[in-house]
Amino acid sequence: MELILVISISYLMGSIPFGLILTKIFLKKDIREIGSGNIGATNVLRTGNKTIGYLTLVLDVLKAIMPVIYIKFQIPELVYVSSLSVFIGHVFPVWLKFIGGKGVATYVGILFSINYIFGALFVFSWLIIFFISKYSSLGSILSALLIPIFIFLNSNYENEYFFIIMFVLILYTHRENVKRLINKEESKTKIY
Prior knowledge:
mainly alpha
């Protein structure tokens, strides 16, 4: 019963589509009809409203932090179950016919909740890759790959298998971006 409750609450928290909600309320637009059609912060930034874009980013991070931190301290053995459920909720939300975001901001929230070093490493590497390439997707994919590599090389940490799974999921959600990157058709992103 406890396991089902953790999965359900974490999934439902993750499935809140803040990008869609905020653009509908404040911009009177459907984010799914703009840019890539994705509900995440990067696409919300394409509306030209940076405030709504950054607010989406913060809320997508927080919706992961809230359940994962709670589970981490109350039922620590289920922290990875909660983390995966939140991520799956964001990527496959029941409210939007299971078509959600790519999960990067939510993953950042998960990383900071599990270990702030992982979160800081992801954000730092993403910023470096982004400012060199201007590709948000490339920064996300390579930063997600860096986490299991870092854990594998550092014997102080464990559960690298969870982070390998998360990398594979991030790669999956960015599969169209990978094709565009290979074909040199990926659009660059402005975050400021």
